[in-house]
């Protein structure tokens, strides 16, 4: 959330507005963005001469204990959705609130990597290789150079989200 504009700066911007100063000049004098100046002027004109910040929502909808339950639920199942967590924890809060609590805990939703499945042809080749070499001794295998390099492709058709720090 952007920092709040102090009350004195709001009064100054409203004063400039009543004097007919152009908005660009107001921005320069008050050292505020055009968006901030616009919001202050609109709030003053539309909300019965309101100078202060808009009223904020009520108290926090979850307790610290509920927050820990949400984090524990996603730790048990990192692929769970916010709706599933809400059902598992039995909380009467929105999915957006659950996502905010997870973000506050340092957990971000991202699309998990997928390993490619083995095809039928690959399975047949592996089985043929295993049968051809099942009689090899330890000395035979000692002559083989193993490498851990592999080529794979990520699939994009089933993007499943996962929660990670």
Jot down its keywords.
Arc Repressor Mutant, subunit A, 165 residues, 5% strand, 2 domains, elongated, mainly alpha, two-stranded antiparallel sheet
Gist?
This protein is mostly helical. 50% of the residues lie in helices and 5% in strands.
Structure description:
50% of the residues lie in helices and 5% in strands. It is mainly alpha-helical and 165 residues long. The chain has 2 domains: 7-46; 64-132 and 158-165, Arc Repressor Mutant, subunit A. Helix 4 packs across helix 5. The longest helix is centred in the first third of the chain and has 13 residues, at 7-19. It starts with 6 loop residues before the first helix and ends with a strand.
The number of domains = 2
* Structural class by secondary-structure content: mainly alpha
At the first level of CATH, the class of the largest domain is Mainly Alpha
- Count helical runs: 8
Radius of gyration, in angstroms, nearest whole number:
30 Å
Query: How many strand elements?
Result: 2
Whole-number mean pLDDT = 84
Strand portion, in percent? under 5%
Principal-axes shape call = elongated
Q: Which helices and strands appear, and what pairs or packs with what?
A:
Layout: H1 7-19, H2 23-30, H3 34-46, H4 64-76, H5 82-89, H6 95-104, E1 108-111, H7 120-132, H8 138-142, E2 161-164
Antiparallel strand pairs: 1-2
Protein name: Transposase Tc1-like domain-containing protein
GO molecular function: DNA binding
Subcellular location: Nucleus
């Amino acid at each position: 959330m952007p920092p709040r504009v102090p009350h004195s700066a709001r009064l100054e911007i409203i004063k400039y507005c009543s004097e007919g100063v152009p908005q660009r000049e107001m921005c320069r004098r008050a050292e505020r963005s055009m968006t901030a100046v616009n919001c202050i002027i609109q709030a003053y004109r539309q909300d019965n001469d309101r100078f202060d910040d808009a009223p904020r929502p009520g108290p926090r909808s979850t307790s610290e204990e509920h927050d820990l339950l949400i984090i524990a639920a996603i730790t048990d199942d990192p692929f769970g959705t916010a709706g599933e967590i809400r059902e598992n924890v039995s909380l009467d809060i929105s999915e957006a609130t659950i996502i905010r609590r997870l973000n506050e805990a340092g957990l971000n939703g991202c699309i998990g990597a997928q390993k490619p499945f083995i095809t039928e042809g690959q399975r047949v080749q592996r089985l043929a290789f295993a049968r051809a070499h099942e009689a090899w001794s330890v000395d035979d295998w000692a002559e083989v150079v193993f490498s851990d390099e592999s080529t794979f492709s990520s699939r994009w058709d089933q993007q499943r989200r996962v929660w990670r720090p």
